[in-house]
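Problem 12. The chain below contains 900 residues. Write out its predicted structure in token notation.
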Amino acid sequence: MNWNDIRLRLKALVFHRLAERDLDEELQIHIDLQIEQNIRGGMPREEARRAALKVFGGAAHVAEECRDQRGTRWIDETARDLRYACRQLMQQKSFLALATLTLTLGIGATTAIFSAVDGVLLRPLPYRNPDRLASVWCAEPAQGIPRMGFALPDLREATVRNHSFDAVAGYFFTDVNISGSTPEKVTGVKAASGLFPLLGVHAALGRTFSASEESFGKHRVVVLSDALWRRRFGGVAGAIGETVRLNGELYNIIGVMPSDFRFPNQEALLWMPMSFAPKDIMATRDNHFIHAIARMKPGVSVAQSRADVQEVGRQLRSEFSENAGIVLDASDYLSSVVGDVRPALLILLAAVAVVLLIACVNVANLLLSRASGRRRELSVRAALGASRSRLIRQLLSESMLLGALGACLGVGLGAWLVQLIRTMGPPSIPRLQSIGMDIRVLLFTGGVTLGSVLMFGLAPALDLARTQIGDAMKEGGRSLTAGARTTRFRDALVVAEVTLSLVLVIGAGLLLKTLQRLHDVDPGFQPDHVLTMSVALPEATYPSSEPAKAARFYDALIQRLEQIPGVKAAGASSAMPIAGWGGWGKYLTVEERPASRLADVPLIQYREVTPHYLRALQIPLRAGRFFTVDDVGGQPLVAVINESARRRFFPNENPIGKRVFPGPPESTIRSLLPSPDFRIPRLTIAGVIGDVRRSGLRSAPEPELFVAHLQGTVKDNESSSTKMFLMVRTEGDPLLMVSAARAAVQSLDPDQPVADFATMRQRLDESIAPERFQLFLFGVFAGLALLLASVGIYGVMSYSVRLRLHEIGIRMALGARAPDVVMIILGKGVRLGAAGVAIGVMVAWGVTRFMSTLLFGVRANDGLTFAGAVLVLMAVIAGASFVPSWLAARTDPLRVLREE
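Solution.
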């Protein structure tokens, strides 16, 4: 092939109309020249014209040969096929609307869910070489703790001793109070200076902090997020170098991060150096709260880095007694970010793929129904010389038009659904706000559309292309062989449709039962009419060296809250029930049976609470008493445990009066004590209260130890918590108390913000938001599946009635009653549905086990759910079959017989 041939083919492909015009003009020139030559030879003009056309064999024939030579004939044929397909579809607008709507729903839903899966699971993190980022953490399996943060000394040791990482950086969340005309509390991050270089990001304005600024005393610098910079400082570059009061101390603003920077999550609005004062208790091996991210060396795999850090963990356990039972582990950072949401998203993607498959089956059924009236047309075309491949291509062009139209509308529907998912999606889904429609999603939609077209278009096209010319050409003839084959194929499609629909309905039923089980869970308190909020007192104003100051603040705040009209009780705790915020774990020793080794000392959740905490939440008192206003410094130290702690530590005895202390036995940590005769303060158990769910309704109650907040000021005891969560029980709508509660806080300290206002009922709803979101999407998919299945059954039954009109007419002429006809048609629909249900039950029995991680209080093979789904689907099938059977029963036998 020379350049001239290539140029002609490109011209014919890109400028098709121009090439056709040139071809026609060139042929006409040759014909005119031949005519002139014949006239000069003595022929009359008409005879000369006929002779010229005879020489060229007909202009159309020559044009076709020219198109074959330049390889562009397929363009003409495709264009003609598409124009013809468009005319055919426009003549049947109801078919076009139904098929397009079906494809739009299937493609749109699939596009939206894939967008979420792509944005959350597949898209690389927006950092430099994200595949080399790893998450590193500690765990204590013997205590049932699968994951926890590093202690600062352990993090430093792991950084030095590992051989797999180029860099390791620690960070942790912290509450930051911003002073000013409008005080507010935001979520900040204290991080190592190496965090930003490790991620490969730079400040958009100014700079990030340096290693020297991690030294205590030089640490008062801050880097702002773009959102906070614009909101608090008007987005002016002059903010760099200014000071801002954070937690009662002045910090210099040294930088602003790019607007698209998110680390470690959407909530962080500022970053400060991770710095600790000398002898700060938080910098010891006893406090595990620091998250760690690492960059693997080139060529190092996740498996190698994991083995490396596990070896470092073994070394630390052998060298430091405090590390007994603590292991180190690592994974790729994306898996750490995604967490437990991966199975849920993949299951949703599988569910929406089933919906798309059902949509394709439905459209295939619609095409087969439509094909029953086109056999004669296609037989005529075959008789005129059309090859089987040519007929298949013509039919596929119609399917391509349907697919293209469904894809265009599906992209629009998908974009709307993406916005809906971003709005309705629970905050527990990471990276959810970054999902959207982009080129990756559009390419996926194109691939899905092409696959769908082949799926629903190829089988009907092949079936029609096998039409026997002789049978179809007979006037009024029916091809019994083709009809039987087509009928069996359509029946098989319906059975498949019912099977897939049943799997989705069962899945939706299991999720519905899960949500019902969660609603039935007793949280351990009465959530109605309770307002919750959080207050975090700054270290600069309420130093840990003066714990009584923080205790007095909360004591006064509780009194003021209880004086507000409409408030029945107010209490505070260092942890927020249900939400899982605050609180921490401590070792617990029962005085009369101390453990001999540190590794054997159990853990318990430690809480500081105020006296009216029990009344505010209406937690039941099981034994003894709760704290009173007399449990203050100078009085005997008392504690309260919950039912779970009683069952674990005092299973067969009365715990009231027993002495415990929050720590390991002194004999196991003698080297760490300030003096040989030092004893950890003992607490006398005064009462037992009911269990309260700490981290959502899914989580089982944990053993908890409660101490009086006002006794946290006792010398040698733990200092009082400076961050407390308040619960206010009201007579009416708790949200009406927000302004009064904020005023009560600021009447004690005008610079002190109060945040996280929400009712306890809202907290409960938030705890099951992921389950509600999953049920919503799965329910929508199951509803679509039922709708499409009913349409498919209706189409098959209608087609069956049309094929059997002659038989029905004869039966009714011979005396068959309308109910008999109804049962004949209805029976077939029920038989098809029963076959699909039988297969669907077996399929669902195998695949629902993959949903186990999404379920709560219900087995993946729950019999009642399966039975309910079968009844629902069979009712839908019976309803869809009844309409055609009822119409068949109204058939006039005389009219049918006359037409035959």
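Discussion. The longest helix spans residues 480-520. Students who got a different answer should revisit the alignment rule from Section 12.3.
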